[in-house]
Design goal:
Blueprint (H helix, E strand, L loop, with lengths): L6 H11 L24 E2 L2 E2 L13 E5 L4 E4 L5 E6 L1 E10 L4 E2 L1 E3 L5 E4 L8 E10 L4 E10 L8 E4 L6 E2 L5 E6 L4 H8 L2 E6 L5 E4 L5 E5 L9 E6 L16 E7 L3 E6 L4 E6 L2 E7 L10 E6 L2 E9 L1 H8 L2 E9 L6 E4 L17 E3 L1 H10 L5 E5 L3 E2 L13 H4 L9 H4 L13
């Protein structure tokens, strides 16, 4: 049996719980039979080589943004840094009282990002020092002010809660309401920072509506990984006149690898812990008129006791209201793993549910005690395929398809699994 609830209601409940370059070799063409060619000179038995001329040094160029005296900037403003023939050696940002703002350079050193949103209607001064290859230091100073809070915010949420432990398939999920337009996604994505320890490469992927962005690696996270996330979107201006509502941060840990695999053909669930088969359970899936989804899903939420009430969705003739134990949500559309004492006789034999994975009470209780939000379950062989965005569907895509959903260019080393260099996406 399943619970058909609206996606909006499910989202509200979950949010309420939370708070390069190539080497060119110079060669000499064959010279034919010219008689004026000289044989190479030898000194002490070695060929004398004429040194190549040294390439001229790159001229030192240094620029900073925003422009001096700029007013009404968003509180998401970064200190842009552009330098040739040298490097940025210092960035200092202070408010009008002289208090220093903490922050850090991006990995590519194209800008300096404050650790928290700037204050509204406040004056700031940025002092940036760059040093040339020859050791020459140059300082640039710019002053600017931020705008007042607009009140025309987008809604946002981060499905990663500080201090929690998650399963190995847990994507970083950022949600937006309304969705982010395609032309704004690159700017928003550039403000989504993820750091993993130990380092594991990853990419962001946007669902087509722009309401969610997922971040994952080519493979499941390593058990014990610490994930630190900052969705630094407060004040970021969007093309529809809205701005980001607030910055969201969390640091979480990945627990043991726990995975479930269900085959419709056998009507059985296999349970693996750290890649070792530990349990096999009979199940009943969705009947032909309400089939379960085939694909890789993620445990999104767990409720030891709940009520499935479908009257609002299905009406008085088809709706039902049922007490449910050990419910684990898999999709926004209402597919769960749960205890189903009424279908024990069918489990392992036939499908009778409304789309859920039915288990015997004892099996459902044991499984509920083992799983974590973020644990993966793969269901195969049913009449319906999992729809993108119906739940946290980040793992229902191949890696090559997943990277296509990024709004920013993906480095070539990240496009092929196994060839990526494990470096953080950005620092905050």
């Amino acid at each position: 049996m399943t619970r058909f609830v609206t996606r909006r209601a499910a989202i509200g409940k979950l949010l309420a719980v939370a708070a390069a370059g190539g080497l060119v070799l110079a060669t000499t063409a064959c010279g034919g039979d010219k008689t004026d060619q000289k044989a190479p000179a030898f000194v002490s038995g070695q060929q004398q080589v004429t040194p190549s001329p040294t390439a001229p040094p790159i001229p030192f160029q240094f620029a900073v943004t925003p422009a001096d005296k700029k007013k009404d900037l968003p509180v998401s403003t970064e200190i842009g840094t552009s330098v040739k023939g040298g490097e940025i050696t210092s960035v200092k940002l202070t408010d009008k009282s002289g208090k220093e703002v903490k922050g850090a350079l991006r990995e590519d050193k194209t800008s300096w990002v404050p650790n928290a949103p700037l204050k509204y209607k406040t004056d700031y001064t940025a002092t940036v020092i760059a040093t040339s290859a020859a050791g020459q230091a140059e300082t640039k100073t710019v002053s600017f002010s931020t705008k007042a809070k607009s009140g025309n915010d987008i809604g946002s949420g981060l499905y990663l809660f500080n201090g929690k432990t998650y399963g190995v398939a847990m994507p970083v999920v950022v949600e937006f309401s309304p969705g982010i337009a395609k032309k704004d996604r690159a700017a928003v994505q550039s403000r989504l920072f993820v750091r993993t320890d130990p380092p594991q490469p990853g990419v962001w992927h946007w669902v087509s509506s722009g309401t969610q962005a997922y971040y994952r690696a080519p493979d499941y996270w390593k058990p014990g990984t610490k994930i630190t996330v900052r969705a630094a979107i407060e004040g970021i201006p969007l093309s529809n006149g809205r701005v980001g509502d607030q910055d969201r941060k969390a640091t979480a840990t990945i627990g043991d690898k726990f995975e479930m695999k269900v085959e419709n053909k056998t009507k059985k669930m296999q349970v693996f812990k750290n890649d070792k088969l530990v349990k096999t359970f009979p199940v009943s899936l969705g009947k032909a008129s309400t089939p379960s989804s085939s694909g890789t899903m993620i445990v999104m939420d767990k409720q030891e006791h709940t009520v499935f009430d479908t009257f609002a969705e299905l009406g008085p003739e088809e709706g039902y209201r049922t007490d449910i134990d050990f419910a684990q949500r898999l999709t926004w559309g209402g597919e769960y793993i749960h205890s189903a004492p009424w279908s024990v006789g069918d489990q392992g034999r036939r499908n009778v549910s409304h789309g859920c994975v039915n288990l015997a009470p004892g099996n459902a209780s044991w499984l509920f005690g083992q799983t974590k939000v973020g644990d993966p379950i793969t269901i195969r062989g049913t009449e319906r395929k999992l729809e993108p965005g119906n739940g946290w569907t980040a793992w229902n895509l191949s890696w090559s398809d997943f990277v296509k959903g990024s709004a920013l260019p993906v480095p070539g080393s990240l496009k092929t699994p196994g060839s990526a260099t494990p470096t953080p996406t950005a620092t905050d």
